[in-house]
Amino acid sequence: MQKQSRRNLLKNAATAAVAVTGVAMASSAAEAQVTGALEKKSYPATPNADNKKGEPPLFSSVVSYGNLVFLAGVGAHFQGTIEEHTKHVLDELEQNLIRAGSSMDKVLKVNVYLNDIKDWERMNTVYKGRWGAVPPVRTTVAPAGGIPGNSLVEIELIAYK
């Protein structure tokens, strides 16, 4: 009985995902393999990404699974203001979304990491209005140890195609 309940729970979650994202979910793992509907796919990094020739990447910058698109955190690794860093990060995220067949207005979830929480209002002046009519849900934190690479802001997101 417990196994059946778990299966129903998973089916209900898949149905909800379809309703929210429009992803056509396969009814079984075998069907997914045949159709390729739920294939994990990686996209090439943006030209600005730090990529050493011949070495395997540490992580993928952009991965899709079905109609979902996951973007790794993007920072701005140059001297500048929080506004300049935020614009750079949002522009690079948008390029990655387009490369994966998505767009800023299809973003569902955003995580923003600020080097200093005092930059929250100034970051928002650039962030606001970049997401279409319905902005994504968002979490904003300032990690105690800061952001790697001396970026003032790092943003990661989840979108759909």
UniProtKB/TrEMBL annotation:
UniProt keyword Hydrolase present: yes
Keywords: Hydrolase, Signal
Keyword Kinase: no
EC code(s) of this entry: 3.5.-.-
A GO MF label: hydrolase activity
Signal sequence interval, chain numbering: 1-32
SUPFAM superfamilies: YjgF-like
InterPro entries with a match to the protein in the record: RutC-like_sf, TAT_signal, TAT_signal_bac_arc, YjgF/YER057c/UK114
Broad class of enzyme this protein falls into: hydrolase
A Pfam family reported for this protein in Swiss-Prot or TrEMBL: Ribonuc_L-PSP
NCBIfam families: TAT_signal_seq (TIGR01409)
Identification of the protein by name: RidA family protein
Source organism of the structure: Acidicapsa dinghuensis
Taxon lineage: Bacteria, Pseudomonadati, Acidobacteriota, Terriglobia, Terriglobales
